[in-house]
Amino acid sequence: MRPRLERTTPHPSAPSRRGGGPAASASPSAPGQPGRGDLLGVVRSLTERDRFCVAVLAEHQVLTTTQLAQLCFPGLDVAQRRLLRLTRLGILDRFRWHALVGSEAWHYTLGPAGAALAAAERGADPPRPAELRRRALHLAASPRLAHLLGVNGFFCALGAQARSEPGAALVSWWSERRCAEHYGELVRPDAQGVWAEDGRQVGFFFEHDTGTEPLARVAAKICGYTDLAAAGGPGHPVCFWLGSAAREANLRRRLAERPTQLTVATASAELAAACGTGPAGAIWLPAGTERRRRLIDLAPPARPTTPR
Known about the structure:
Layout: E1 4-5, H1 39-44, H2 48-60, E2 63-64, H3 65-72, H4 76-88, E3 92-95, E4 97-98, E5 107-110, H5 112-122, H6 129-141, H7 145-164, E6 168-174, H8 176-183, E7 191-197, E8 200-208, H9 215-230, E9 238-242, H10 245-255, E10 264-268, H11 269-275, E11 285-286
Parallel strand pairs: 8-9, 9-10
Antiparallel strand pairs: 1-4, 2-5, 3-5, 6-7, 7-8, 10-11
Helix pairs in contact: 3-4, 3-7, 9-10
C-alpha cells in the first residue's frame, strides 16, 4: 500500500484535514524569543551554522535530518533540537511520509523566513507562502525525490568525511539545476563537486544511478561530457555512483564500449559500506584500470612547470 502524507501539525496557511500535505511546525515561539512575524528578530537570532543550512537548502531543495546532521552538526541529537527550533521560527519547513508501520525521517526545506533570507541575499523578492507550500508538496510527491536525496546524501557524506579528516574539505557542490544553467544542453550532471585533500583538489561531475535506467543509457551519458570537453568546457573526471557492486560491474562493461580521453570512474555504496569508508575513500575504479583509488587521486597529474 502506498504511504500517505500526513500533517502532524496544522500549517497556518492550509486547512486542517486528514491525509494532508507536508508537515510544518506552527508551534509558537518561546517567551522572549523572536516570533515568525518578526523576521529581523529571527535573522538576528541565527548562527553562522543556521545560515549555512539555509544556503544549502536554497541550492539543494531538500535534505533529511541525518543529512543535515552529517553536513553541519556534531551529532544527531543536536541537529534534531536545532532543526526543530528553526522550523518553529519559520526558517525551515519539513515533511515526511507516513506508512501503516513507522514513518520516514523528516525532510527539510526552506520555510517562509528562510526563503525570504535566501531571496534577500540574491536581491530577489521572496516567494509567497502558498508558493513554498506548492513546492514542498511537489517535492513530497515527486518520483525523483529518492534520486535527489541520493545525490544530496552522497555530498553530505563527503561533507561528514571532510569534517572528520584534517586537511580535507568539500570546497564546492553544485546542484543539478545550477549545472543545467551553466552547461546548457551538452550535459546534465546530477551534481558537480570540488574535493580537496592535503593541498590538492579535484573537480568532478557526479552521476547517481538508482537502478531505474537501462545501463546502455547510463553509459551513453559519457558522450555529452566528451562533447563538453571538446567544446572547451571542463574535462573533469566523471564519477558514477551505483547502489550495488554487481550493477557497477555491468556498467563498466558498457563503458568499455565507449572509449574516451576523460577519466571515468565508478564506485558503489555497497563497496563503501563493506570497506567502512566514506565516498572519498579508495573505492573509485577508473575505466581501463584494475586498482581502486581515492577520490582525490582521480585528479589529473599536475603539469610540470617550464623554467623561463
